[in-house]
Amino acid sequence: MFVSYNKLWKILIDKNISNTELRNLAGVSTNVIAKLGLNDTVSMDSLAKICTVLDRNIGDIMDMSNGKEEKVNNG
Fold it and tell me: Which domains are present in the chain?
């Protein structure tokens, strides 16, 4: 399974929120932020915390695909 958090990064840019601010606001670890940067899977608990802080739904911050990674990156 491939995941992409490109939507999350766009939201953070639009809201002028840094990765460190997101980490502190959501109460997630630096490891979670690093995994997000690598498009790696993270726990639903961490994603829920991020969604709550940003007032978004899960589909607003990420894409998932069972196919090839290119499909996720091309939207």
Answer: 2-73 (1.10.260.40)
